[in-house]
Amino acid sequence: MKCKLLYFILFFWVYSSAQQKLIDSLSEQLKLYPDNSIEKLTLLNDLCYYYNNIQPKEGLLFCDKAINLAKKLESKEQLALAYKFKGVNYYALANTAAALKMYDSAIEIQKTFNDEKALAKTIYNKGLVYFNASDYKESNHNYREAYIIFEKEKDSFLMAKMLNSIAINQMYQVKYPEAIKTFNEAAIIYENLNKQNDFEYGSIQANLGLLYKRLDKFDQAIAQQEKALLIYQRQGNLYGQANALSNLGNCYDSKGNSLKAIEYYKESNKLNERIGNTLLEANNHTNTGIAYISLKRFDDAIENLEQAISNYKKIGNTTNLAIANENLGTCYREKYKVNPQSSFVKKATTYFNNALVEAKSVNNILVQQQALEGLSWTSSKLNDFKKAFQQKERATVLKDSFLSLEKMEAFAKMEAQFTFEKKEALLKAAYSKEQALAKAQMQRQKIIKNGTIVGGLSLSFLSIIGFVLYKKRQEAVFKTKEAQFSTEVAQTELKALRAQINPHFIFNSLNSIGDYIIKNDIHSASDYLSKFAKLIREILQNSEKKNVLLSEDISVLKMYLDIENKRFDRKFLYTFDISDTIDANNVLVPPLIIQPFIENSIKHGLAKNESDGHIKITIDKKGDALHYIVDDNGVGRNVTAVKSNNRTSLGIKITENRINILNRTNNIKGSVKIMDKEKGVRVEVYLPLLYAS
């Protein structure tokens, strides 16, 4: 899933958007006043803020001048403002720590004089910094603190602004029902104030539209954005119009109408060029590039993504720069699939690497994971399969780190869906009741009519029954055989699943977790539980698939080995030796086909071994076959035959049955060989070499 850029409207308290002309005008006015005048200090503070949109580093220089002059003139109000605007410039440079420090300095001064609203606005700006750093909990703490002050001051207008921002945080925290409620509370305040044509009210509609988009309710999302656009057009607010047009493009792209989406992005950028909104212009180029990729218009995509990258570099937006680079890498990857040229692989590698470095610097896990997936693909195309596998493993680890958030979002969507459906049901109830009576009467008339028709057709129907029954008898014989084979497949799959998560393994794992808790080793207990839960989830997910990628299967096997190794107190080591001729990201295998043999090696070989144990899993290619070797240095089968013959036979039988089914369904010759060594056991499994693409 591609990371499209959305544009929420938050209210950053200072002044409205500034142009270079205004800065030039203020600079000229600055020359008219004496160095130590309050007028000059006021102008310095104005310049402090206005520079944050275009040259925040220059803005910091004016802030320092304003701070020094405010201290000299002993003006607390202007000193607090200078610290606040310095925070704004640090915020523009994405320097979170410095921005928070400046806001704290401003707040400390503002608490000493009687201007509660000014204090609340600075607290709100502090919340914006936390929002930008993805600390939504702390961000909302500041927003609510500001809200309480505005409520105390009986300023409903500013209370509504706080609610808008709180709702956005709730949305990022995947609290969708709460977010909808909060957005509506803000909208009601504006309606009571008769401000339905204000920018702020339009912004509530636009933000609600983005929430509906997250819930995949695209028609409602589009309706909200169109409502917002109409309000902005009445006001003549170009900034709001550009924002709504961009979000409309995003909605249509998600709905599958990429061409219409591109039209909206272009309309938005016509306005962005007029008002100098470089960030939204770059976002539109990124989203346009993503849309062109889906249309396989790769040259157009490259042009837009390169323009976006250029803009992000100008304004120093590393987060979005990483997203644009990752999409440009994806574009060259998809272009290669249509027209295989080695130069496309090299370019894809460059852009994926750029994205990875940038995403790491801003701790964007999703883009890191996508970039590593891309690099794994390019490495495999360059025949560096070992590196490809390592990159795939790193991507899998990162994917797992945000998987729980995706599940939270899925649950939140279901909860919100339930809320919508409940409301919809109530609205439809009265109408349905009226329709039911009319429908019942119509049905009665239909039954009477159909009875007459059926009577006329019954003789014709009886004349063909004999033929149908004969044909069905023949089909039944075939279906019985087919059902018997399907039952055998299902039973074997179930037995394989039971073998992989047998009760003994679950019981022993839970016992180990319990032991850690008793010993008060919370870290080990948490680590073990996390790995155990992840393993069970992967096994259950893969059990629904006939084949999985070899790289994914190895990842699950490693999880299983790590858990067992921890349970047996690091009594053995394991290694995977994957041939350079194998592309683990493109080879398909039945899930966990060799797991029973690894389990037997651990339990019946290595667990009883007095010396350090070792399991070596080798995977290579033999002609058209995939060749597994599971080799251990345990006590061997002869020592454990009496005690564990049943368990060993079960593991072998399950795998042999699975391979027999593969042989019958695919007309292939897979096999299992078990060899006793002087010390340990060697198992060889041969499977057909299948490719994903």
Automatic annotation (TrEMBL):
<feature type="repeat" description="TPR">
    <location>
        <begin position="282"/>
        <end position="315"/>
    </location>
</feature>
<keyword id="KW-0808">Transferase</keyword>
<keyword id="KW-0418">Kinase</keyword>
<dbReference type="InterPro" id="IPR050640">
    <property type="entry name" value="Bact_2-comp_sensor_kinase"/>
</dbReference>
<feature type="transmembrane region" description="Helical">
    <location>
        <begin position="451"/>
        <end position="470"/>
    </location>
</feature>
<dbReference type="GO" id="GO:0000155">
    <property type="term" value="F:phosphorelay sensor kinase activity"/>
</dbReference>
<dbReference type="InterPro" id="IPR010559">
    <property type="entry name" value="Sig_transdc_His_kin_internal"/>
</dbReference>
<dbReference type="InterPro" id="IPR011990">
    <property type="entry name" value="TPR-like_helical_dom_sf"/>
</dbReference>
<protein>
    <submittedName>
        <fullName>Sensor histidine kinase</fullName>
    </submittedName>
</protein>
<feature type="domain" description="Signal transduction histidine kinase internal region">
    <location>
        <begin position="492"/>
        <end position="572"/>
    </location>
</feature>
<dbReference type="GO" id="GO:0016020">
    <property type="term" value="C:membrane"/>
</dbReference>
<dbReference type="Pfam" id="PF06580">
    <property type="entry name" value="His_kinase"/>
</dbReference>
<dbReference type="InterPro" id="IPR019734">
    <property type="entry name" value="TPR_rpt"/>
</dbReference>
<keyword id="KW-0802">TPR repeat</keyword>
<keyword id="KW-1133">Transmembrane helix</keyword>
<keyword id="KW-0732">Signal</keyword>
<keyword id="KW-0472">Membrane</keyword>
<feature type="repeat" description="TPR">
    <location>
        <begin position="242"/>
        <end position="275"/>
    </location>
</feature>
<dbReference type="Pfam" id="PF13181">
    <property type="entry name" value="TPR_8"/>
</dbReference>
<feature type="signal peptide">
    <location>
        <begin position="1"/>
        <end position="18"/>
    </location>
</feature>
<keyword id="KW-0812">Transmembrane</keyword>
<dbReference type="InterPro" id="IPR036890">
    <property type="entry name" value="HATPase_C_sf"/>
</dbReference>
<dbReference type="Pfam" id="PF13424">
    <property type="entry name" value="TPR_12"/>
</dbReference>
